[in-house]
Amino acid sequence: MKTRICRLHAKGDLRIEEIEVGEPGPGEVLIAMGAGGICGSDLHYYLDGGFGPIRVREPIILGHEVAGTVSSLGPDVQGLAVGDRVAINPSRPCQQCRYCREGLQQHCLTMRFFGSALRSPHEQGGFRDLMVVDAFQCVRIGNPEISLGEAACAEPLAVCLHALNRAGAAAGNLAGKSALVTGAGPIGALVVAALRQAGAGPIVVTDLQDGALETASRMGADETINVGTDSDPLDAYGAGKGTFDIVFECSAAGPAIRAAIAAIRPQGTLVEVGVAGDVAVPLNLLVGKEIAFVGTHRFVGEYAEAVRLIDTRRIDVRPIISATLDLEEAAAAFEMAADRTRFTKVQLSFAT
Hints:
The protein is an alpha/beta fold. The protein has helices at about 40-50, 100, 150, 155-170, 185-200, 210-220, 235-240, 255-265, 285-290, 300-310, 330-335, and strands at about 1-10, 15-20, 30-35, 50, 55, 60, 65-75, 85-90, 90, 110-115, 130-135, 140, 180, 205, 225, 245-250, 265-270, 290-295, 320-325, 345-350.
């Protein structure tokens, strides 16, 4: 049995190829993929050959935001049936290292994560028509009105829910907290939706693109600010040592981080969601205002929570899905995903 795959051979060299796919073994299921979202890391692999020290050193099947339908079951699989529609958690921690034993599986020393070039050999991803996965990775979608495209948004939403949990650990209950979100890409937009679900507000969002800010409004933002066209856009929020209780910095841009630190109130919490290289930070303000500067990385139990929120439409992810193209058009889809002036989340569809 063969399956189409979307494999990156080198920077800009994306090919649709065929490989054999086997039958599921014990504890495994065969998934007929339905939808897969193009993530920022996929884009970095395609456009730049990697990001930071992580480089594509061998052909890699991309994709980790995926959902599909159970096609067949391996031996000893319980809780799933043929025909079940599922979101697929791309994380496979070892459950044996010290971090896994402490409940910090996102920091697993030997994490296997779909479509990742972190280790060699690379971990192959989910942009393919058929894929054998571990049954424990599958979380059922029960609502027939939820599309597989929506279900594929569970992974980025889980990232955002983990960021909120990191904020809550530092700032307490988020209900009623004023929030600033810098960067209105897919993650920023989903952070907005998660904040609205958590009862935070008012929620202010900044970005350089009007289209992204419009999407953020549809996801629940109370106010949006184009920092590229507005003069001194956050100055008013910096008065009196700052305004916001919490900030989610999703751009990883130095100017955005500095503006966020100026706009946050003393003893506020800044959660850094965006990833970049070395960035200058105004430590004098960070220290003088006693700001809690918190990092966030992937997710653990938040994946199942993300699926539940999507399945019940307590968080409606449809506004972020800008376009869906067939796997055969993957190169065009990646080019579209790179155009932030027009697209938020571009997804691939697969043969069923």
